[in-house]
Design goal:
heterodimer; A: alpha+beta; 2,3-Dihydroxybiphenyl 1,2-Dioxygenase, domain 1; 2 domains; 7-stranded mixed sheet; 5 helices; 17% helix; globular; B: alpha/beta; TIM Barrel; 8-stranded parallel β-barrel; two-stranded antiparallel sheet; 16% strand
C-alpha cells in the first residue's frame, strides 16, 4: 500500500516547496565570486574535489560551478527545486516526457536526480532540506565562514527569467504546467521594472518564472533559449538598491528601467550577467 | 501559392542523399522532407548526412517517420520512447522543426483513448525543449486511428501546443474520408499537408492500401483522383492553412528514373496545384445585375 504522504496533490503534484539552490556555470569563478559578494552573497564552502563553490545569503544558496565550464560569462545552469520526494519527482517527470539529465553532470557528488530544462540547463530535485544539509556531503566549509550569513535588505529568491524563441510561449507553458503544476498569471499582472512576456507562478507560491520571447523586429539579434536572469525579491527595493550601491553595484538608471519602488536592474557584468530586484513580500 | 510552399520528399528519389539534395535544389525547390534512413544510411555516417543537408541551403520541411508510438505498455513503451528520443535528436540536428508520427499499426497497442492521448502528450513534452512540433498522421491502415477526424480528435484531447495533425491526401482518398469534415479542424493545428495521388480507382483491402501507398503513388495531377485532390487542396487552403505542402510520392518507377526527370514531374504538379488554388482565389466575376 502506498503511504498517504506519497499521494500527490493535484495542484502541486511534486510537493514543490521553493528553490533549494541556483547554480551558475562560469570559467571565471573568482571574478564572479567578487560580484556575488558585492551582491551580498558570502562564500561558505568549497567542493571536496571539483572547482565548485557554495555561496549563501539569508535563505538563498548559490553554487558556482567552474568544473569543465567553457564560457566566461556566468550563466544560470541549474535550478534545484525543493520537493516532497526527489525520487518520485524524478520518475513522475520522466513518465510525463522529461529528459533525464546526463550522468555525472551534477555539481554534487551526492546523488541528486534531475532532468533537462531549457537550453543546456538542468532542473534538480532535492528532498533533504529540513533536517539535513546536502552541502555537508560534498563541501568543506571555509574556515571562519558564518554558515548563516544574513540577507542584505531581506533579499530572497523571487524568480528566474527564461528567454524563449518566438511563438514558443505555449510550448513552455505546457512544459511547466504539466510537469510541475505551475500556473499562468493573468496577462497584465507583472512585478518589477521589466513587465514583459508571460509569468508563471510555482505551485508552492514561492517563486516565479518569466518567459520572454524576442521583441518584435528583433530578427537580427542573437536570441537563444536559456535561463538569462535571476530575480531577487526585496520588501523595500529602494533600501536594497542603496545597500547594494554602497557595495559598488551599479543599476541601470535610464528609460523605463530605472530603480523604483517596484524594482531595479543591475548593469551587465562579466559579459552579460545581471540581477533584477523585484518588490516582494514572499 | 508558389514553389516555395512545396517540398519534395527524399523517398521519391533514387540515389545518395547528396544527389537528391542537388537535384531538388536544381529544380528550384527550396525545401525537402527527410527520411531517417537518408541520415543513418549515409555511407559517411550521420554527421556527414546532417552536414550535407545543412550545406544544401534547403529548408527541411519535416523529418519522418516515428511509427507505432502510441498505445504500448511496459517494455514496449519504454523501447519506443528511446526510439522517439533518437528521432527527435536527429530532427533537431537537421534543423527540422517537425517530426512526423504515424498512427499505430501495432497489434500490441491498445486503442483506449486515454492511453493514446497520454502517449501523445508525452511525445509532445519530449519535443518541447528541442523546439520540435509533432505532426500526427492517420495512416489509412492504422489499427485504431486511420482517418483524419480520429487523429484530430486525439490531438484535441491531448491539447498540447506543439502537437498537431498531418493531413495526407493518399490516406484520405484511400479510405474515402468525407472531406466535409475538414472544416472541423483548426488550421493552426495542421502542421503539415502531404500530397499525392494514385492510379487505381479503388483500394479494396488494407493490403491494397499498404501496397499502393508504398509503391504506386504519383504526383497530384497524375492520378485518377484529381478532382478529389483538387477539392482537398481547395478546402485546406480555404480553411486558412498557410503551411507547407510536401509531395509524399512513394513510387517504384520514379526510383529508377533520372532525378531531374522526377523533379520536373514534381514541378509540373506544383503548377497544377497552384493553378487550382489561384483560380479559387480570383474574385468572383461581377454580374451585370443592377439595382437600378
Amino acid at each position: 500500500m502506498t503511504s498517504p504522504e506519497r499521494i500527490p496533490e493535484p495542484s502541486n503534484p511534486l510537493g514543490m516547496d521553493g528553490i533549494e539552490f541556483i547554480e551558475y556555470a562560469t570559467s571565471q569563478p573568482q571574478a564572479f565570486g567578487d560580484l556575488l559578494q558585492r551582491m551580498g552573497f558570502v562564500p561558505l564552502a568549497r567542493h571536496r574535489s571539483r572547482e565548485v563553490m557554495l555561496y549563501r545569503q539569508g535563505p538563498m544558496n548559490l553554487i558556482v560551478n567552474s568544473h569543465g565550464a567553457t564560457s566566461g560569462m556566468p550563466t544560470v545552469s541549474a535550478v534545484a527545486l525543493r520537493v516532497r520526494d526527489a525520487a518520485f519527482a524524478h520518475k513522475h517527470s520522466l513518465d510525463l516526457g522529461a529528459w533525464d539529465m546526463p550522468t555525472r553532470a551534477s555539481a554534487m557528488e551526492l546523488n541528486i536526480p534531475g532532468i533537462h530544462g531549457v537550453g543546456d540547463s538542468l532542473i534538480y530535485f532535492v528532498d533533504r532540506y529540513r533536517d539535513f544539509s546536502i552541502y555537508d556531503v560534498d563541501f568543506i566549509p571555509l574556515p571562519g565562514a558564518d554558515p548563516r550569513p544574513p540577507a542584505l535588505s531581506g533579499l530572497h529568491y523571487f524568480g528566474v527569467v527564461q528567454a524563449i524563441l518566438g511563438e514558443r510561449t505555449r510550448d513552455w507553458v505546457d512544459f511547466y504546467t504539466h510537469l510541475f503544476g505551475f500556473s499562468v498569471l493573468p496577462r497584465g499582472q507583472y512585478f518589477g521594472v521589466l513587465p514583459k512576456g508571460t509569468l508563471l507562478e510555482s505551485p508552492c507560491h514561492k517563486f516565479y518564472l518569466q518567459l520572454i520571447e524576442p521583441p518584435p523586429g528583433a530578427d537580427d539579434i542573437q536570441w537563444d533559449e536559456g535561463l538569462v536572469r535571476l530575480g531577487l525579491g526585496a520588501a523595500n527595493v529602494p533600501a536594497a538598491v542603496r545597500a547594494l550601491q554602497e557595495r559598488g553595484i551599479v543599476f541601470v538608471d535610464h528609460g523605463s528601467v530605472q530603480p523604483s519602488d517596484k524594482g531595479a536592474l543591475t548593469q551587465f557584468y562579466l559579459g552579460g550577467v545581471t540581477f533584477e530586484l523585484v518588490v516582494s513580500h514572499l | 501559392m508558389n514553389l516555395d510552399h512545396f517540398g519534395m520528399d527524399t523517398i521519391t528519389l533514387a540515389g545518395p542523399l547528396e544527389a537528391k539534395l542537388r537535384a531538388v535544389k536544381a529544380a528550384g525547390f527550396t525545401q525537402i522532407m527527410l527520411n531517417a534512413t537518408d541520415i543513418v544510411g549515409h555511407p559517411d555516417g550521420e554527421s556527414a548526412a546532417i552536414a550535407a543537408v545543412r550545406a544544401s541551403g534547403l529548408r527541411v520541411t519535416g523529418f519522418q517517420v516515428l511509427r507505432d508510438f502510441e498505445g504500448l505498455a511496459g517494455h514496449l513503451h519504454a523501447y519506443k520512447v528511446d526510439v522517439a528520443k533518437a528521432m527527435l535528436e536527429m530532427c533537431r540536428a537537421l534543423g527540422s522543426s517537425i517530426l512526423l508520427a504515424c498512427s499505430s499499426t501495432s497489434a500490441h497497442a491498445t486503442g483506449e483513448t486515454d492511453s493514446l492521448k497520454t502517449d501523445l502528450q508525452k511525445l509532445a513534452l519530449l519535443a518541447v525543449p528541442l523546439n520540435i512540433r509533432i505532426a500526427y498522421e492517420a495512416l489509412s491502415w492504422g489499427r485504431y486511428v486511420n482517418e483524419f477526424p480520429q487523429s484530430w480528435d486525439l490531438v484535441q484531447e491531448a491539447d498540447r501546443a506543439n502537437l498537431g495533425v498531418c493531413l495526407d491526401s493518399y490516406h484520405i482518398l484511400a479510405n474515402r474520408t468525407d472531406l466535409g469534415l475538414l472544416p472541423d479542424i483548426d488550421p493552426r493545428k495542421v502542421f503539415l499537408v502531404q500530397l499525392s495521388d494514385f492510379m487505381w480507382q479503388e483500394l479494396r483491402s488494407p493490403e491494397d492500401r499498404i501496397d499502393t501507398a508504398r509503391h504506386f503513388r504519383v504526383f497530384p495531377g497524375e492520378g485518377v483522383h484529381s478532382l478529389e485532390v483538387a477539392e482537398l487542396v481547395r478546402q485546406i487552403d480555404g480553411m486558412g492553412y498557410r503551411g507547407d505542402y510536401s509531395f509524399e510520392v512513394f513510387n517504384d518507377d520514379y526510383r529508377q528514373l533520372p532525378l531531374p526527370m522526377v523533379c520536373e514531374r514534381a514541378k509540373r504538379s506544383v503548377k497544377w496545384v497552384s493553378d487550382l488554388v489561384s483560380r479559387r482565389s480570383l474574385p468572383l466575376r461581377r454580374t451585370s445585375t443592377s439595382r437600378g
